[in-house]
Amino acid sequence: MPPPIEGAGEGGPAAVPGFGLSRRADLTALLGAFCFFLSAVEYMIPKPLPFMRLGIANLPILLAVEILPLRWFLVLALVKVIGMSLVSGTLFSYVAVFSLVGTMGAALAMWGTKRAGRGAVSFLGVSVAGAVVSNALQVLLARYLVFGEAARLIAPVFLGMGLVTGALLGLFAERFVLGSRWYARALGGEEPGTRPGAAAAPEAAARGGAASAKAPAGGDAP
Amino acid sequence: MRPRPLDLLILAAAAGLTALSAFAAYAPGGGEPVLVVSAGGEEYLYPLGQDRHVEAPGPLGLTEIDIVAGRVVFAHSPCPNQTCVASGEIHREGQWLACLPNEVFARIEGGTDDGGVDAAAY
To answer: Closest residue of A to B87, CA-based?
Structure first.
């Protein structure tokens, strides 16, 4: 009998045979690198308001909510915080504290929403939940650490931006996973739009009919 | 993509929370609007009707705020990104400017009904 896989029982690909420690580390490292890259891209985009972020660097975390076990998922969130702080030069400042609290709060909110909602929630809802929780926590930090009562004026803009950017990110993630072979393999499926044990999406099924005869058996790292 | 049931619930909850916070933050006050500057643990009030150059102290140094013809801008701040300076001007009740690295926050609020203030710190 093969040894128990670390994290098995948490759901997701940890329960898929062959998804061992090195593969989780590889996926976390790859997604962490994407967090660094998207942090740099986000840093270049002019911000509408001071200390407000668009949140595109959260995309790898959003995608990882179904791929990684909780511990590695939180490691990825921490990598994102460090990466964003390094890129923006705010590692040892209040801004990094805001980023840490916001990102970890968003990560836990995404994780909890996906686990609680299961099939009744898509990346859209998961992303919006994460964005709103992140921004709400940052407003609370601003209220108690920096600006006092005046922080209430920031709240509507922050929450509104979180709603809009979270929704856009979630819609993009939904579209992405429908056509991504890499994501399907990371999740343990064989074709885009599939999940282990689930029926293929109609588009993927139409493409996969010809391709499946040529695809090698078993999933590989990207 | 068709939203799933919980998606709609989460979107509605987020929109409701945003609307509630907007109502709480932007309910109109009374009297003439004043500029409230929060810096260094203190709050300073300035009438918008008088042109003024304000220097607000923070951990990084002085954030310079100009009040000209009822409009407020951050003229300079010692933060590395200068995002607050690039944010432009404010002139209506409820609008705000902030420099997070230097912990300076400026907002326009409805003034008091006792004839306004010249400058006050509390």
So the answer is: A49
Distance CA A52, CA A62 (A): 19
Instruction: Indicate whether A170 pLDDT > 70.
Output: yes
CA pair distance A40, A110, nearest whole angstrom: 23
pLDDT in tens, A151-165: 788 889 889 989 999
Per-residue pLDDT tens over the stretch A14-53: 444 445 677 889 999 999 999 999 999 988 887 766 556 7
- What is the DSSP code string of chain A? -PPPPTTTTSSGGGGSTT--HHHHHHHHHHHHHHHHHHHHHHHHSPPSSTT----GGGHHHHHHTTTS-HHHHHHHHHHHHHHHHHHHT-TTSHHHHHHHHHHHHHHHHHHHHHHHHGGG--HHHHHHHHHHHHHHHHHHHIIIIIIGGGGGGTHHHHHHHHHHHHHHHHHHHHHHHHH-HHHHHHHT-SSTT--TTSPPPHHHHHHHHHHTTTSPSS----
* Closest by Cβ to A124, choosing from B7, B15, B80: B7
Kindly report the number of other CB atoms within 10 A of residue A89's CB atom.
12
Q: Does A88 touch chain B (CB under 8 A)?
A: yes
